[in-house]
Automatic annotation (TrEMBL):
Residues 26-141 form the TPM domain. InterPro entries: TPM_dom. PANTHER family: BLL7265 PROTEIN (PTHR30373:SF8), UPF0603 PROTEIN YGCG (PTHR30373). This is Membrane protein. It holds the Pfam family TPM_phosphatase.
C-alpha cells in the first residue's frame, strides 16, 4: 500500500471533482462526444472518479482495474456491435484509462489508446482538465472514424453525458 497515494485519495473530495469539471466543462465534454457521432459506428462514454474507497486502496487497485469495473457497471460492453469505448479518469491519480470493447479493439492497437491516455494525462498535470478531456475525446473519435466509419446512421446506444462517480 502506497501511503502517498492513500493520502492523495483521502484529500480528493467531491468538491475537487466539481472544481476540475464544473457544469460548463461537463457540457463541453458531452458536446465533444456528440460531435461527429454519425461519422463512426463507435459508442464513446466518459467517466471521472475523484478517488477510490479505502478497501480498493488497501488492495492496491489500479486505475485500469477500476476502469474495467466501471466499463462493466456503465454497461459500455452492451452495444449491438461491441464497439463501446470508455474513457475513464481517476482524478486523484491523474490517470486516464481507455477500455475498448472487442469490436472497437479490432483495428486499434493498445499503443494507440495509450498515446491518447498519455496526451490527456499531460494536460491534466497542467490543470487543463476540460481541454485535455475534450482533446482526448476528439482523438478517440478520429480513430473510430478512421477504423470504423459509419456506413449508415447509428443510433445512440450509450448516453453522451459524462458520468461523475
Amino acid at each position: 500500500m502506497n501511503l502517498k497515494r492513500v493520502i492523495r485519495h483521502l484529500f480528493t473530495t467531491r468538491w475537487t471533482v466539481s472544481r476540475a469539471f464544473p457544469p460548463r466543462s461537463l457540457r463541453a465534454i458531452e458536446e465533444a462526444i456528440a460531435t461527429n457521432h454519425g461519422a463512426h459506428t463507435g459508442q464513446v462514454r466518459f467517466a471521472v472518479e475523484g478517488d477510490l474507497d479505502v478497501s480498493a486502496l488497501v488492495n492496491d487497485m489500479s486505475a485500469r482495474e477500476r476502469a474495467i469495473e466501471v466499463f462493466s457497471e456503465l454497461r459500455v460492453w452492451d452495444t449491438e456491435h461491441n464497439n463501446g469505448v470508455l474513457i475513464y479518469l481517476l482524478l486523484a491519480d491523474r490517470d486516464v484509462e481507455i477500455i475498448a470493447d472487442r469490436g472497437a479493439s479490432v483495428n486499434v492497437t493498445a499503443a494507440e489508446w495509450e498515446a491518447i491516455c498519455q496526451s490527456m494525462e499531460g494536460d491534466l498535470r497542467r490543470g487543463k482538465f476540460e481541454l485535455g478531456t475534450t482533446r482526448g475525446i476528439e482523438l478517440v473519435i478520429e480513430l473510430l472514424k478512421t477504423h470504423f466509419p459509419a456506413e449508415r446512421t447509428v443510433g445512440d446506444e450509450l448516453p453522451k453525458t459524462p458520468t461523475v462517480l
